[in-house]
Design goal:
The chain contains 6 helices and 23 strands. The chain is of the alpha/beta class and 404 residues long. Adenosine monophosphate (AMP) binds next to α3.
């Protein structure tokens, strides 16, 4: 048994301690990707009147009861009603109105026929089949009825919801603020991009990897550091980051070596440490804490460990912070195109790329799964989980996984 808690236990420990960010009212044209902070209920029926879905003719269905090819029914056209107009004459026995797509159904009419199915002149329309009452009429409220809940608080606004709000004449909505996520890289070996490469130093790739991951989630990244391996320096940046942001993601210095100072710095900054280390590989080394209700996610400096741990534990926590109701990873089953040929004494996560080319959900597993191999994270959009105590996983095996 691992001495560490499971990734789900760690994730839940932190998730249960945080609340969503504050809310603001945002105009309809800027709502894409924002998270609703209140339920939205239908205030008006859509459509608000019975209308025609086609260019055609509106009439009384009973007038066509005996219509057939040999004995068609010819109706007199009273008027033409384009979309945006209203009728002036009720439709009576033996009469019809020409209606165009979107036009309101005139009083008296209870059926519509497409013009292609008729023969017509400017004055008359001839119908060759009986039509049912209500046929080809979009009923009032067919799309949305007064009182319907359109969407619940916690939903991310997509094109469909934005359009739905607009159809209700809703010009703005109460949404959660976009969380600001501080990203702090630590390590005396780190160089800022653009600096001359000198022996022993490396470029700070984690900060830009996490910057992209945070942007991809729709949040605002705020970059700090890189900090040298000094408890005081890291602590000062944690304090600054947490005062300016809603959450902090740190990389480096979370293991147990002499220069792994992030947990001590979190402590010095006044953060409560919730857990250190989880039963997962890569990504075992980590330190998660909380300060003033704001999560602090301390990840390994090893890039593949950092990103695997981020997607598994930090990302759901950040989604909760953003107000999203659906924060947990979307679980799927995937068939490994190529297996993983080592034993897994502890829980192991494989990063990979979904392949839907044969109509089934398969996963390409990059051969290099090591925690220092950053290049094999390129294009990854799925993570599969090998349960602790598993033997080598053969090609074609099916595993549970989640989408990134
Ligand atoms: P640490 O977690 O501090 O023990 O670092 C583990 C490994 O990750 C070391 O080889 C570090 O040099 C490397 N590393 C730490 N931070 C970064 C970073 N920001 N970008 C790339 N590699 C890093
Ligand atoms: Mg280090």
């Amino acid at each position: 048994m691992s001495k560490f808690i499971s990734h789900t236990a760690g994730r839940d420990l932190l998730m249960n301690r945080i609340k969503p960010v504050l809310t603001e009212t945002v105009s309809i044209d800027s709502l894409c990707g924002r998270v609703l902070a209140q339920d939205v209920t239908t205030k008006v029926n859509v459509p608000s009147f019975d209308r025609s879905p086609y260019d055609g003719y509106a009439f009384r269905a009973e007038d066509t009861a005996d219509a057939c090819k040999e004995h068609p029914v010819t109706l007199r056209i009273l008027e033409e009603i384009p979309a945006g107009n209203v009728s002036h004459y009720p439709v009576t026995k033996g009469c019809a109105a020409k209606v165009l797509t979107g036009a309101p159904i005139p009083e008296g009419a209870d059926a519509v026929i497409k013009f292609e199915k008729t023969e017509f002149t400017a004055e008359t329309v001839t119908i060759f089949t009986p039509c049912k009452k209500g046929s080809n009429i979009v009923q009032t409220g067919e799309d949305m009825k007064i009182g319907d809940v359109l969407d619940k608080a916690g939903t991310r606004i997509d094109a469909g919801l934005a359009g739905t709000l607009a159809s209700q004449n809703i010009t703005s909505a109460l949404v959660y603020r976009i969380p600001r996520i501080g990203i702090l890289s630590t390590g005396t070996e780190l160089l800022e991009l653009g600096a001359e490469c000198v022996p022993g130093k490396i470029y700070d790739s984690n900060r830009y990897m996490l910057n992209a991951a945070v942007q991809n989630m729709g949040f605002i990244p705020v970059l700090y550091g890189p900090a040298v391996d000094s408890t005081e320096d890291i602590s000062a940046l944690i304090k600054k980051g947490i005062s300016e942001c809603d959450a902090l993601v740190i990389t480096g210095g979370v293991s147990v070596g002499d220069y792994d100072l992030t947990p001590a710095a979190m402590d010095m900054a006044g953060a409560e440490i919730l857990f250190r280390g989880v039963d997962m590989k890569p990504g075992m080394a980590c330190a998660y804490g909380i300060y003033d209700g704001k999560p602090i996610c301390g990840l390994s400096g090893n890039p593949a460990s950092a990103i695997t741990n981020f997607y598994t534990i930090a990302a759901p926590v950040l989604r909760k912070l953003s107000g999203q109701a659906d924060c947990l990873p979307k679980e799927i089953s995937v068939k490994l195109i190529n297996g993983f040929h080592k034993k897994s004494p502890g829980t192991r996560f494989l990063r990979g790329i979904l392949d839907l080319s044969d109509g089934t959900v398969r996963m390409i597993v990059p051969r290099e799964q090591g925690n220092v191999v950053l290049s094999s994270t390129i294009g990854c959009n799925v993570i599969a989980m090998i349960p602790a105590g598993s033997d080598a996983i053969p090609d074609g095996a099916e595993l549970k996984g989640f989408l990134i």
